[in-house]
Task: structure prediction
Amino acid sequence: MKNRKLVMIPGPTPVVRTIQDQMGRDTVAFGDQQFVKDFKGVLTDLKKLWGTTGEVFVVAGTGTMAMEMAISNTLKDGDNLLVISHGYFGDRFVELTTRKGINVDVLRSEWGKIIPIAEIEAKLRDKSYQALTVTHVDTSTAAIAPIAEIGKMMEKFPDTIYIVDGVAATAGEREYVDEYNIDILFTASQKAFGVAPGLAILWASEKAMNRRAELGTIPEYYVDFDKWLPIMHDTSKYYATPAVNMIWALQESIRIIKEEGLENRYERHIKNANAMRDAIEAMGFKILADESNRASTLSCVLYPEGVNDLNFRTILAEEGAQVAGGLAAYAGKMFRIGHMGNIDTLDMIGAISAIERTLYRMGIDVLGKGVAALQRGLFL
Ligand SMILES: Cc1ncc(COP(=O)(O)O)c(C=O)c1O
Result:
């Protein structure tokens, strides 16, 4: 008999039954009174939970589209952008914005490390930048950026829009938009919200909205704040078809988050991440990110000598768990495992025990070591 597939890649993450049920409902007209109310409720909750008096947008699309939405509404051809890149997804901003004729400077860290805030501040003093981008958790390295502290420093640069990519963080790592002085925060549904892929979520401060107004007509059509704002203020209006069932799925995810409590959710992520890393290290692996900047949402795990990536991930999938490979220079050298969203103890035990069985089949006997460390960590 084949094992079930436990999706432990860093997104999409496992989708719990009650969220799946929302996606399986009969689709209704987007003007349906109950849907209009549900959509409005989702937007109200998102603003409240992430602590902003600004705007929120929920639009069909992926995280990359949200990156484009953030950039298109705040920067124009010829503007200066400072990108803080801690890996592959930080670098994606460079590619995206260079195409738009934006002048991009990059502060790039070694993978697994982060750029010190003092360095960011020095760069901002050097030259006038219209925006700064920071990837909260870069999914290629599992390094986390100190977005609250960066936000504090950004108070000294009131003309610079502070954009945070929360795709691999939001709903798993602490993010309070106004308190952290963030101008744009965005994410996608398939990561720590535990919804299937398909929705982009974006919060925008008054400062970001003012910048949008200054830009006048922008070349982009689908991702234009001005086009979506009337719908976000009155969900009975139409601009482009809302992803009805996905919005219901997000509503259920938010219900789960409220039931757990956002702060409890963040603490759970920290605890789970520590226990998962204890387990991973107990099996003989090393973690890529420096201890001082490890994310709670996923881990990037370096293989010990002699473990072949493709064999490992193929056997692991047979044993029931899917993990992702390393990106760029780390392809073949590590795997990436998610521990975010609505995963529970059994999911984690399932994943760690599947890794133990995989290693056993590859001639490395660490049976029981990972699970023991995990369980101990969960009891701490
Ligand atoms: C940090 C980060 N930013 C952006 C993206 C792009 O999101 P998507 O694949 O949904 O377009 C990802 C995807 O994994 C990500 O991890």
In short: Residues 11, 62-64, 89, 135, 138-139, 165, 167-168, 188 surround pyridoxal-5'-phosphate (CB under 6 Å). The chain has a mean pLDDT of 97. The longest strand covers residues 55-60.
